[in-house]
Amino acid sequence: MPDTASAVGAPAERREGPQKVAGAARYAAEHTPEGCAYAWPVPATIARGTVTAIDPTAALEVPGVVEVLTHENAPRLEKPDDATLAVLQDARVPHRGWYVALVVAETLEAAREGAAAVQVSYAKEPYDVTLKADHPDAYVPEDEDGTSGEHTRGEAEDAFASAPARVDASYRVPPLHNHPMEPHAATAHWQDGRLTAYDSSQGATTVRNVLAGLFALPKEQVTVVSEHVGGGFGSKGTPRPHVVLAAMAARMTERPVKLVLPRRQLAAVVGHRSPTLHRVRLGAKEDGTLTSVIHEVTAHTSRVKEFVETAAAATRVMYPSPHARTTHRVVPLDVPSPSWMRAPGEAPGMYALESAMDELAVTLCIDPVELRLRNDTGTEPDSSKPFSSRHLAECLREGARLFGWSERDPRPRSRSEGPVLVGSGVASATYPVVVAPSRAGAHAYPDGSFVVRVNATDIGQGARTVLAQVAADALGVPLESVRTEVGSSDLPDASLAGGSSGTASWGWAVHEACTRLAARLAGQRGQELPPEGVGATADTKGLADADSDYARHAFGAHFAEVGVDTVSGEVRVRRLLGVYAAGRILNARTARSQFIGAMTMGLGMALTEGSTMDAAFGDFAEADLAAYHVPAHADVPAIEAHWINEDDAHLNPMGSKGIGEIGIVGTAAAIANAVHHATGRRLRELPLTPDRVLTSGI
User: Fold this and answer.
1) If 110 and its partner were Cys, which of 105, 360, 502, 519 is the partner (CB 3.0–4.6 Å)?
2) 3-state secondary structure 300-334
3) Distance of CA 449 to the CA centre of its chain
4) How distant, in Å, are the alpha carbons of 3, 588, 637 from that of 603?
């Protein structure tokens, strides 16, 4: 067999690219079974209360309307673990935008018109949607997963009070929304008691399991297909109401039903990043060595279910200090349920921590890169476990070299171009290594081709391609001879595409299956394969989820240069550089794309993205892409992504770490620190919009 040692790591092109360019890749809403009907949801227009009456008469008179589902006639569901999925089961309204009805029609236009004609009466109740750090209902959640709650080490308060150098600062990150290009959508149909759903999801196995539970079906009677997914960023990480509603409507009407959520409704029903209020206190010696780290975070959760934005979790792994306290507090409000958004916890938490580190560097007149180097560590501060690998220092040094950091004048406002002040900033980044058990199958055929089957989800990160590279490497065959099948719950069960865990999890199972297949083929050397070929399977349960003696994290460093217009208040990012230590890079092309995409999202977090909870209406004011501003091409500068060649034997057979999220983690802080360097003013609330810049006194 040919030597294919270069299959892993090579910049192979994404295999589904031609299909997507040609429009042949089919997404959830592009499956239209014969007789398919269309659905449109009716959201509640009050912030809290009860539905007292629903009159569907006018809706049913709209030509083409087939049915109106309400809590009075909708199919009954088994109680879900996720209460956001208990749709149309009772009359309660826990927040504005909660679905109270669903209209099904022959056409999308008729469904939309019918939804507007449904008459709903409510009994309103008092509500509270305002997050405050001193809210009387704030509480410290249970620390079931080791990331929430409160962690203490030593005597943090006393050590801070006695420290020669201190920073005590508050930061605010607003609500943020995922807004994938492909809205949440599902097409569902029943046949002979079997449910098939085409869903825009980051994990078809999980959706299958949840739907089976809701409708009291054996898992074998449910198939969920998520073959192509146009982004998710966490909002599609678990089943959302649309797929449940589509399945309910299909069962009730006895015909296929398609439901595509309107973008303006997404903020209320598919999750969002909770706003976070941070207070960070750093105590240090005169040489910059940290003696006390205190990071307190307050976030909101809904009254439907608890979700904790664990924004202080990264603080527990970043910098050593003999004394530390990290605390999460949540406030239950009458708001839509927050959920995962790219780098949940780490993205807002590291913005606050890395901004505070910059403030400490300024206080001590120490170079910001040097301050971080002086506080590097080989063991995780909270657990005292050694890091399996931690090349943060190398990332900082290499980033400084590539960026030209040594040429920087540390004095604020030291560089200007007419009315534009120019500055540069740096921030560290980290993200945990997450691996989950998965199954995979590998099959060899007499014609020399191979097929790998695993229910992975390709949400744009290139999973098909990278898994083929892993398989080719393990089999010792050319990459072009390997085909991958992903995106269906009829394939071997796999974990979801989230937490930067997908490739590490699926790749492990694929590697094991292909290694076993290679051994089987070696035993048949010289013999022809049967017409049906031969195969092997693998299940990494007990391996991938085993405890480790090491703290496993990816690290990185971000550098940014900005120009701040003193007339308009506009901040323009001129240069953005990221250098990462993320294990073995499995595909140089797709990895660079992942890093750059996340850095672009971090740029949006810093400068344009953010929404407002309207206290008068209990609703997010910025609910579409006209009001919620994501970066456009004109906003994105020349972005560079580099990485350190990292050899870590304590991860998985590929030696890989997740890369999808670490790129967003430090970007916002690097940009905010650059704005301070440019202007001499410290803005501690994101995004850094012109009004905030102008009122800062520049």
Assistant:
1) 105
2) EEECCCCCCCCCCCCHHHHCCCCEEEEEEEEEEEC
3) 35
4) 42, 22, 10
- How many angstroms separate the CA atoms of 639 and 281, rounded? 32
Lateral strand order in the sheet of 482-485: 482-485, 450-453, 439-444, 534-539
Under 8 Å between Cβ of 228 and 27: yes
Whole-angstrom distance, CA of residue 178 vs CA of residue 301: 17
CA distance 330 to 333: 9
Query: What is the separation of C-alpha 442 from the centre of its chain, rounded to a whole number of angstroms?
Result: 29
Nearby residues of 55 by Cβ (< 8 Å), 6 or more positions away? 118, 119, 120
User: What are the Cα distances from residue 144, in Å, to 84, 150, 549?
Assistant: 21, 11, 20
Contacts (Cβ under 8 Å, ≥6 apart) of 266: 177, 178, 179, 183, 184, 235, 623
Structural contact between residues 155 and 163, judged by C-beta atoms closer than 8 angstroms: no
* CA neighbor of 681 nearest in space, from 537, 560, 571, 528: 571
Check residue 212 and give left, alpha or beta (phi > 0: left; psi -120 to 50: alpha): alpha
Helix (H) or strand (E) holding 538: strand 534-539
Tell how strand 185-191 and strand 257-260 pair up.
antiparallel
Residue 380 backbone dihedrals phi, psi, to 5 degrees:
-70, 125
d(CA 687, CA 690): 9
| Sign of torsion over alpha carbons 634, 638, 639, 641 | positive
Instruction: Name the pLDDT band for 146 (thresholds 50, 70, 90).
Output: confident
What are the tens digits of pLDDT across the range 113-140? 999 999 999 999 999 999 999 999 999 9
CA distance 655 to 585: 9
Active site residues: 661
What does the pLDDT read at residue 469?
98
The one-character DSSP state at 41 is E
Structure tokens at 287: 């040489």
**Structure-token pair, residue 631:** 């970066």
pLDDT digits (tens, 9 = 90+) for 59-108: 999 999 999 999 999 999 999 999 999 999 999 999 999 999 999 999 99
* Residue 561 structure tokens: 């240069």
* Alpha-carbon span 167 to 281, nearest angstrom: 5
User: Residue 651 contacts by C-beta under 8 Å, 6 or more apart in sequence?
Assistant: 388, 433, 435, 504, 552, 583, 657
**Residue 395: which residues within 8 A CB-CB, separation 6 or more?**
428, 555, 556, 557, 579, 580, 581, 644
List the structure tokens of 259.
């439901």
- Spell out the residues 6+ positions from residue 64 whose beta carbon is closer than 8 angstroms to its own: 105, 106, 107, 109, 110, 111, 114
Confidence band, pLDDT 50/70/90 cuts, at residue 4: very low
Record the pTM: 0.97
Amino acid at 346: E
Rounded-to-integer distance, Cα 193 and Cα 279, Å: 54
Would you say 70 and 90 are in contact if contact means Cβ atoms under 8 Å apart? no
Helix 667-679 vs helix 346-364: crossing angle, to nearest 10 = 30
d(CA 197, CA 31): 10
